[in-house]
Amino acid sequence: MTAPSHAGRYRIEQLIGVGGFASVHLAHDDELRSPVAVKILADNWARRTDVRERFLQEARLLRRADSHLLVQVFDIGELDDGRPYFVMTYADRGTLHDRLAGRPLEMDEALGLMRDICQGVAVLHSIGVVHRDLKPSNVLFCSRPEGGERVMVADLGIARSTDHLSGLTLPAGSPGYQAPEQLYFDGAPDLRADVHGLGALTYHVLTGQVPGKPERRVPPGALRPGVPAAIDAAVMRALESDREARWPDAASYATALSSPAVTRSTPPHAPRHAPAAEPPGRPPEGSSGGPPEGLPGGPSEELPGALPGEPSEGLSDGLPGKAPEGPSGTLREGPFGGPSGG
To answer: Where does this protein have compositionally biased stretches of type Polar residues (predicted)?
Structure first.
């Protein structure tokens, strides 16, 4: 996969990540004098019209949502060699996956962060989009010009509209976070699949652990004394195996996390230090391991918030990173059938 020197007016500076379907680069907008992230479709897929369309569909979805709580897309274009690309927010403060590092967050920070994440997912739900792969590596942070930071939900690579649910051909999501119905070809996940993912994220930020199997799962408060009973109840309802018993959507779950019984004095998302370093030997997040829907083969390892086949830790679309060493409602349908970019 060749790296261009420019993508339109954007000067390519550094490779952030590369996978079987696309590469993500740190670039600079010389006209606006600001860093951006550029995702470019891989050479070997550029002539597949179905892959091109799904690649660009992710950009269109993010542009349509147009929320500061989601990774934002600023531009779209085509290289001289015909490969499409899109330009998005550069997340300079890493991912939630980096920050957890095997430990829970402070209580107020965890609850405030989850309210922000829920609100971002609620924006998707309001336009009829189900994310289908909510996990720590798909939650990014970027600096605010005035100081502090904001959280962004990333990776709509397997997002779907309810118009297309009947056409699902592969399970979606990541182990530990995906809803039970996402494990089956005919699961037709709806908004409540994202509620399950949000519940799993809440559980993780509060306890430092991914929820266990339903039959052995205990409330967060059993692992972390001091978790309000109302939060325990809200999280366990979000994690119900029977989707009929869950909160109906992200907005409802956000309301539950913001109830007077659990709201504290800390702002929704307090500024914090830079991402914690990844500890040696830490296992990567699980991935669905499937190829893109409707496409043969495909790498089984998936980049968090980026592309199938990319490294599974500490890297997501728009995220700062070190280039690899060596050679280099209605749901909207995303570009690929596995966690892939956003």
So the answer is: 257-266
Contacts of 167 (CB under 8 A, 6+ apart): none
The predicted model gives 10-25 an average pLDDT of: 85
Q: Give the closest residue to 156 by CA, choosing from 39, 49, 247.
A: 39
Number of neighbours of residue 1 by Cβ within 10 angstroms? 17
pLDDT above 90: percentage of residues in the chain = 50
Q: Are the beta carbons of 198 and 117 closer than 8 angstroms?
A: yes
What pLDDT was estimated at residue 338?
32
Known binder of ligand: residue 39?
Answer: yes
Within 13 Å and on the Cβ side, how many CA atoms surround 306?
39
Looking from the CA of 12 toward its CB, the CA atoms found within 13 Å total 21
Q: pLDDT grade, residue 325 (50/70/90)?
A: very low
* Phi and psi at residue 143, to the nearest 5°: -70, 145
Residue 157: what pLDDT?
A: 61
For 46, the 3-state DSSP assignment is coil
Burial category of 264 from C-beta neighbours within 10 Å (exposed 0-12, middle 13-18, buried 19 and up): exposed
User: Is residue 28 helix, strand or coil?
Assistant: strand
Catalytic, 133? Answer yes
Question: Are 182 and 209 spatial neighbours (Cβ–Cβ below 8 Å)?
Answer: no
**Side-chain half-sphere of 182: how many Cα atoms within 13 Å?**
29
**pTM, to two decimals:** 0.73
**CA of residue 245 relative to chain centroid, distance:** 25
Please say whether the dihedral angle defined by the alpha carbons of residues 195, 64, 92 and 42, taken in this order, is positive or negative: positive
State pLDDT tens for residues 121-149.
999 999 999 998 899 989 999 999 889 99
